[in-house]
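Hi V.,

Quick status before I head out on leave. The structure for the redesign project is tokenized and pasted below; the design run finished overnight.
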């Protein structure tokens, strides 16, 4: 089994480690939204809708409280 060297810091200013991206997405929240329709001769056969929210439980709770407080205030 080969041992690969581990990178502890990004090698350049533009490099971002996957863990950093995941940390940012969980802290800020990330929404993925898309639609696709497969049709043949103008007839829609398959429709696919996708809505995904990726966030930590703390971030989701902050978003929920902010939404509730903005609705409650006149």
């Amino acid at each position: 089994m080969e041992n690969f060297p581990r990178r502890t810091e990004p090698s350049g200013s533009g490099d971002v480690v996957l863990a950093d991206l995941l940390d940012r997405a969980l802290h800020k929240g990330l929404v993925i939204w898309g639609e696709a329709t497969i049709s043949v001769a103008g007839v829609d056969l398959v429709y696919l809708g996708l809505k995904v929210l990726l966030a930590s439980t703390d971030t989701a709770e902050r978003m929920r409280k902010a939404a509730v407080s903005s609705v409650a205030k006149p």
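Above is the designed sequence. The longest strand covers residues 43-54.

G. will cover questions while I'm gone.

Best,
W.
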